[in-house]
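Thread: Nuclear pore membrane glycoprotein 210-like, structure

OP (GT): Posting the sequence first so everyone is looking at the same thing. Length is 101 residues per the record. Can we get the structure tokens written out before standup tomorrow? I want them in the notebook alongside the other entries.
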Amino acid sequence: MIHVVSPGFLAFVVLPHRKWVLETGREYEIIIEIYDTDSHKIYPSDNVRVVAEFPSTYFKVLHSSVNGTYHRVKAILKGEAIIDGALVSVVDEVSPFLKNF
């Protein structure tokens, strides 16, 4: 059975250890997960586009996946930082157009 759902919200996972207190000078993986409105995880395809914002004062982005759901960052400054993300579009594989959210 296949379920077609609409995206509801994003969740950020910081690896290793899933902790939100980071140490300056260390590298971390940040995964952005997509959930539907009933809190079921959606496994994104390569044509999904998520945009994430990491304040350059606090983070150096070392690598990001094409679809924007995976990032490797280095924490560079002590303090409180807000990271943000948004599911912005799905690339139509037949035509060059995007379906925006």
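GT: Both are above now. Quick notes for whoever picks this up: The chain has a mean pLDDT of 91. Residues 7-100 form one domain.
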